Amino acid sequence: MKNPYLPLPMKLVKNFTETEDKLIHTFTLQYLSEEDEKSFPYMPGQFAELCVFGKGEAPFGIASSPSEPGFLKFSVAKVGVVSTALHLMEEGTMIGVRGPLGNYYPVEEFKGKNVVIIGGGFAFTTLRSLATYMLEPERRGDYGNITVIYGARNPGLLLYKEELAAWEQNPNINLITTIDSAVDGWNGRVGFIPAVTEEVAPSSENTYAIVCGPPVMIKFTMPVLEKLGFPAERIIMSLENRMKCGIGMCGRCNVGGKYVCKDGPVFTRAQLNELPAEY
Amino acid sequence: MIISKKDIPGFLDKLISEYQVFAPVQEGSYTLFKSITSGTDAVLTADNTKLPAKEIFFPQSEKLFNYNVTETGAKLETDIDDRKKVIFGVRPCDARSLVLLDNVFNNDKFQDPYYLTRRANTIMVGIGCNTPASTCFCTSVKGGPFDTTGLDLLLIDTGDAFVVEVVSDKGKALAKQAGFAAASDNDKSAAAKAKEAAKVTCQVNIDGLKDKLDINFYAPIWDKIHEKCLGCGACTYLCPTCHCFDIVDDAVDCNGCRVRNWDSCAFPIFTLHGSGHNPRTSNKERYRNRIMHKFKYFVDNFGEIACVGCGRCIKNCPVNMDIRVVLDDVRGSEARLDS
Structural domain of residue A244, as residue ranges? Predict the structure, then answer.
């Protein structure tokens, strides 16, 4: 019987300050052996429990893509005990990783379809994983148009700036970035995600929308997607709830009878419509 | 088969030489399951134990592993309890609760080795309830005072002796090993009479309860029903089917252990996000979740109600919340689908 509580020790090789406000760091973790890497087969949208030995565990979406071998990447906001301890960690130290946990974005269903990825703020982590996965040259042909609409309050709060710059130049992906209010030197759009989505989103025909962001963004983006004709079955969301075990036993992350950790975190809007709004 | 009551301590002593034996033991005014070292410690006359037998398989506080982290790696050590155990004197409701909990700790995707190893290595010897308490309502939730679900042997009190009913192969082997005498026709009819005479007087009508819960998440009844509840969590700690837990580190720097402790859905921090957002903000949402979990979500997921009718939550609630009344109120309430 595999013990699902045991973390895989990994080496923190990079602790990178991702945003200007310094509240989000991106951690790059390296496997200690090839065997370890084989023991961690994951897909975009899954998460893992990161553990700072001596402090505890907390769940975070995996920001790297399975198409990027050798390491795992997590972008973590500093909010609680574990995330604060993570932010203070020196490169070279050991971190525990427990996972991969949860389900993933239905990439098989996306085949032959267009995809529009809509992200806000630092909820862009597993969306980055998804976009990177679909952009892999040998996989790119499986999907139709890929559009990414990504917004943050200001340019300094966008994650993965270098990658965004590369995507701007990449003909295989249509990237639209937006910020809440205009600043000097910003060449992208200005405006909130729902309004920008309404303006630039591709036709809902044969298209999946994947949405991840703060609750207020979700709340106002949903009616826009409905208006654009996206059926609830083709709106994909990723939920976050407080978790401990990550394996459907400790009881706290349930939304109705579904556990976000085990049955999610990825749900379609249609599935969520059947559940009480306890998230 | 039959065993005389005066032979019980000797029987237990024999078991103790081979198994870790748990039995109800007097602790002040109540009994608790404890690992016993002498057959005479077992108290078999009292009501059900204050805490359910669940604790033997899923302790209130349990070490998951030790760790020692260095610059080059981490050494993790687990100590999974695989000692052979006998639980003696467990009541049918508590035995049934473990069968329900098996669904959680052995779910469609993950297995909990701590709980499942203990379960696999344990023989359950139950005692039927000749005189169910006024708070018992097992028969309303698919149980009964002589229900054998989850048991390997069932003992039926006939006065001076227990008539032994074999339930499983494990129980059969234990009975053979113990060399119980054959029961006479008189003994058998005495056992049948005891079963007949045992009456669970309280019935909770749960017909249609699930149908109602399917549609009344937003019903006004939830605004009222929780009002008396203090959110102390006592019911969750005493419940044989509650399984919520927390995981914490107990460590000095990088040497220490990871521990899991019982937790409770009655506490606000249970679902509190790091951001400050809480999906179950008030007692209303938390109490509703407790009822929904046991009588709807568990049924949706595993086809069973997660309540065995032991009555501990009724007996021990500091403000006399009575789940039987709550269920009745919910069942009779007006449904409203809108949010």
Answer: 239-279
